[in-house]
Amino acid sequence: MVWFLVAGVLLVLNGVRAVDRSNFKTCDQSSFCKRMRTMGLDQSPYRAILETLELSDSRLTLQLINDNNKVRLLLELYRLQGNMTRLKINELKPLRSRFEVPDVLVGEPPTKPLSMVSRDEAGVVLSLGTDAHQLVLNARPFRLDIVEGARVLLSVNGRGLLAFEHLRPRKDTLSKISSTVGSMWDSIKNMFSSNTQKDSEGEETTEGAQEEGEEREEEEPGMWEETFKSHVDSKPNGPSSISLDFSLPGVEHVYGIPEHAENLRLKTTDKGDPYRLYNLDVFQYELYNPMALYGAVPVLLSHNAQRTMGIFWLNAAETWVDISANTAGKTLSGKVLDHAQVPSDAPQTDVRWFSESGIIDVFIMLGPKPSDVFTQYASLTGTQSFPPLSTLGYHQCRWNYNDQEDVRAVDAGFDEHDIPYDFIWLDIEHTDGKRYFTWDAANFPQPRDMLRGLQDKRRKMVAIVDPHIKVDSGYRIHNEIRSRNLYVKDKDGGNYEGWCWPGTAGYPDFTDPEMRAWWASMFAYDKYEGSMENLYTWNDMNEPSVFNGPEVTMHKDAIHGTWEHRDVHNLYGLYVQMATAEGLIQRSGGVERPFVLTRAFFAGSQRYGAVWTGDNAAEWGHLKISIPMCLSLGLVGISFCGADVGGFFKNPGPELLVRWYQTGAYQPFFRAHAHLDTPRREPWLFGPQNTALIRDAVRQRYALLPYWYQLFYHAHRTGEPVMRPLWVEYPQDVATFTIDDQFLLGRHLLVHPVTEQGSQGVSVYLPGVGEVWYDAHTFRRHDGDQNLFVPVTLSSIPVFQRGGSIIPRKVRIRRSSTCMENDPYTLYVALSPQGTADGEIYIDDGHTFNYDRQKQFIHRRLTFANSSLSSSNLSADSQFTTASWIERVLILGGQEPSAVTLRTADGSRSLEFEFDAATSVLTIHKPGVNAGSDWTVLLQ
Amino acid sequence: MVLFKEVLLPKCNESGGSSGYLPLALIMQYHIVVAVAICSAVFVDSRKIRGISLAYRKFYKEKKTFLCLDGSKIIPFDQVNDDYCDCLDGSDEPGTAACLNGRFYCTNLGFRPCYIQSSRVNDGICDCCDGSDEHDKRTRCPNTCRNLGQQERAALEAEMRAVDDGMHLKRQLIKEGVSMWQEKQNQLKDLQRILSGLQTKLEAHRKRKLEADAHQAKVMGVLKSPGDGAGGKTAARIFGQLDINKDGSLTVDEVQAGVVNLQDDRSLTEEEVTALLGGPGPADLFRFQQTLWRSLQAAKKVKIKADLRGDLGPPNEGPATRAAPSAARQGEANLKEMEEALETTRAEIGNLEKVLSTDYGSSREFLYLQGQCFQLVVYEYTYSLCPFSHVTQKSSTGAEVSLGKWRYWAGPQEHPYSRMEFEDGAPCWQGPPRTTLVTLTCGTETALKRVREPTKCQYIMELWTPSACEQQREARRRGVHSEL
């Protein structure tokens, strides 16, 4: 009864707000978040029992005790290869085992020796390899500080917010609701304040301590059951949440923890809700808001002019992150004071994580450079999958292309209007009644004919396959999953059922390897009827979306094998994409690279394909936010990111649509998409002028495909983001730290899309003292380290190439990227003030794993120095033959030579050239050399 | 500067059928192309003349130099078709993909020649039916021109026959249209005649009714004549009612406020009132009974205003008064009947005028569609198109939804009667009202052939009708024939 009243009040309160918000919990409505957040900022009740310390070569274990309830925890510390520290905290003897996230790390992270520097009653000091890097452990209260010389880099539990709700037996349901409204912690502290001193350390058995503690513990509402709207969470295991705080002295800028519709630089959360990480299908999301969206990557980056670091909180349960600004002196205490000093008024950012279940498992990535953090994180969770080249082209999507004739007509429309594209997409209506892996018999009677028609044009298709499975005894997929007993179970052990597109649906348990293997096998050409090599896959609704579930997702007490949905929630989407990508690999016998787009994601999802920012809207604000949203994802490993071009909901006017194409052309995943109810918006439907503008934007994308491909190759090899915030390349330039209306592609291109209606110009920050930048369209040269006002017209896309870089382009634009395979390159050599430049060229077959398994690729370095441009091999042991050759070289910021000579193994010959004095562009005609060979062009 | 008149050539992807007579003319042309291509091949390096039409061949004669066709640049002839773009207009690379703005000429022996964008040269897709666009040999393109030519000629002939048949039917429909139009005009005239007849009759009836009313009033009036207790009382009551300020006398203003002209309810002038009251100045009850009261009872010129009459209470109905009202009532019933007939006729005339004011095409060839509906069943929906009226969709569950009401002809200027627009149908959920665009296609029957909904709630229908067959096309074709 009480709950009904509470729910009723909440409904009324939320009714006043935007409709969409009321479907989703605030921190106050999530009982563990509320409990954790109301926890006091007093001294931590945890202390380290130094007697229990054990140090093996690379691992330190130590028990922690909560002096209030005597529950003991086990701390594990690892020094990992590549300047990282791993910190794990679990209950020493949990009532049941607690969930530890599998399948996200690419392997057990390799460790490095950990040695003790000193030890006394107050704590221990451990060496992190060098003399300068040490880990200071303070026993009472428990706290950890990572120091470098005299500088504290990061403190753990500096604010004493370590909390660990130990698992406990379920008691009589009558005592469930306590009348106490105040903080549980306050009351506990009062109760134990006299006992604390008397307890002799390590003497009591932990069981005894727990019993004693538990008997006295007050319980709060929401610990054993909670209700949101009409949904009851039965919480059979009771409270299980965890929390830990991190202090970052000297840090004012933190980034990451996507997915939020938020600026690149994270805001402090003191005045509102924490940032929430809980994969949700949010209908018409709001901008600049800490609410959870479709995906979650619990990785936060900190940055200042000296150092970049990262915190990876490996937990897949509902998680909240509080960020506050502080001064360093306030939280510095204990043993670390013997080792390091921090000016007491130095700025500091405090970050606190709390999750509903699982254990504390944190990776502290110590940088120090941004690229080091990317490498460190990549070594843990892997890198961006290397996508097929064609997937970097343009994608034409709509909910829905209605039938085969519609697909044919849209395909023909692109040819008629001479706009390249690589993929046309089919949304849910292509299926037989939302039964995935099937086709609507009336509208898509001959899917293979349709796919062959696209193949004849060297184009491809993506069809949607969602994870909710229609409960229908006439549906093979459903019957097999049911008979194999692979569905997620409800709390009572039956198959979990929810509402989604097909009506009543079951949800396969993708956390089960058997389920994933079976799912993957469904993509075989003989299983997925009508499929062909040029059909790829899109996984939507994999948060999972459950229309009639709490917060439009699955009930937390649903069961995945031995775990609750509560434990694995944020992993579900990753597993769906993982199984699908595996299916696409398997169907080709392991030869072809897959392409799978996902909406939900987690740490590690970068290994399986692309993500998009979900159901955005045709509004200028949504266009603008696509930049920080994709930048944030790139920082945490997910480079293949894009937003629906044009906006999913509502109708874009021609100006917004054009600007969105221009922006999307310079973002990694370039796909137009639209809601079922919107009018058609294929690129040629807005008059010849707008068609021309869109055509031009798409063509710019295609010309740059060699560069995009090379950037993805690097992202795949190193984990570096393709689309980067400026501070990643200019880490000491404070002016770049908050910029999120422009970005870099790799190191060489700076893009400032126009995202304001009726814009007359944009102010572009060109970074780099002593550097120069060249307008990519006019080749005009500008000095770095300035704010440049760039007047714009509707056709402008402000893009600049960094002086000192070489970018290969393919300027012959064809109908699809595949058609451009053998085309020659034009090299854009932008000279630095010193008259030098360098770049790369990467070529492979564009679609198989042969680059990896058989080292079939070309990777060359292009260098311009001392008036000569040369191409040299970067990978002596790889082999690949290309038909592409060097068609033209443009030297930006060049001078007029008297002669230009090409030197190859076959000898020398002179080349024609022309010099435009007005723009200082030297154009060298037709070196004609194969793109895979050694050559030098000399200017005399 | 070279001046050159461009030969009109279709793009390769344009189908011959839809572009009218032109293909046939080109089918004729290809024979000539064959001959010339064979001859010139003897003299020029085949690579150099790749992608060049016969008409342009003269600009690509082997010389030392080549002048870009826009006259902007002279380059060594070696650089023609050398896979590097030198001319701004792309004219030096007609046979390669080097120039972004270039074009490649498909000779297509056996079919019709055409241009493709040079970006389609050597892209792995066969565009020219003779396969000449994929000359780098990476892609094998079978020569399909002969087949295509045959197919197209067959299709064209079939289409011409169909157009012939369609035109024949169309002429009949126009003829029918003429008589139908005449018929409707006659119908309109008839209706107008009926209408004026009805109006005359109605006049007469009204008059009669007025007389009947007057008679009734007279009968009633006699019964309530002055001197008679009841009558006097009535006269006194009316007097009291008219005497607004209750001062025992009637002023001109008070009479004007309460008494109006019998025929048209118009207010009375001061002179009229003075006359009715038998002289100027306020009248007391006695003078009222002698003057205005008599006029009111006679019911010939004036009457008590309608809103005052209600206040008079039920008439005193004795047996002697019955005959007069029944006659009046009889008149009333007739009148009503007449008025209804009049309304119906007026509505019919209105409809007919609307029908006749609609645009049915230059020869009223679409008039025959008026009043007809055409149906098509697509899955669970039955679509119904009623030209010049409305469009509906009926689902198998029975619900009928309006997809739009007739709005106007929406074809482009050169073919105004090729599309019909229906707007303002039932609104969509969270969206605008449904609309339907009907495209009219030449056919030998009149039928609804296709319904699509490319965007939610925006329907596109295809109606086949002989009336859409083009007169012009036929004339052109005959011209072609005569050239043969």
How would you explain this protein's 3D organization?
The complex is a heterodimer of chains A (940) and B (484). With 940 residues, chain A is of the alpha+beta class. Chain A folds into 3 domains: 24-114 and 156-165 and 237-369, glycosyl hydrolase (family 31) (Immunoglobulin-like), CATH 2.60.40.1760; 389-691, TIM Barrel (Alpha-Beta Barrel); 748-939, Immunoglobulin-like (Sandwich), CATH 2.60.40.1180. Chain A has 18 helices and 52 strands. Chain A has an 11-stranded mixed β-sheet with strand order 49-48-52-46-45-44-42-43-47-51-50. In chain A, strands 5, 6, 7, 8, 9, 10, 13, 15, 18 and 19 form a 10-stranded antiparallel β-sheet that branches. In chain A, strands 1-2-3-4-20-17-16-14 form an 8-stranded antiparallel β-sheet. In chain A, helix 7 packs parallel to helix 8 (447-456) and helix 10 (513-521) packs across helix 12. Chain A is globular and about 85 Å long. The model of chain A is unreliable at 1-19 and 174-216 (pLDDT under 50). Chain B starts with 21 loop residues before the first helix and ends with a helix. Chain B is 40% helix and 16% strand. The longest helix of chain B has 79 residues, at 145-223. In chain B, strand 1 (65-67) and strand 2 (74-76) form a beta hairpin. An 8-stranded mixed β-sheet of chain B has the order 7-8-9-10-11-12-14-13. In chain B, strands 1-2 form a two-stranded antiparallel sheet. Chain B has a two-stranded antiparallel ribbon with strand order 3-4. Chain B has 484 residues and is of the alpha+beta class. Chain B is elongated and about 130 Å long. Chains A and B meet through helix 7 of A and strand 13 of B.
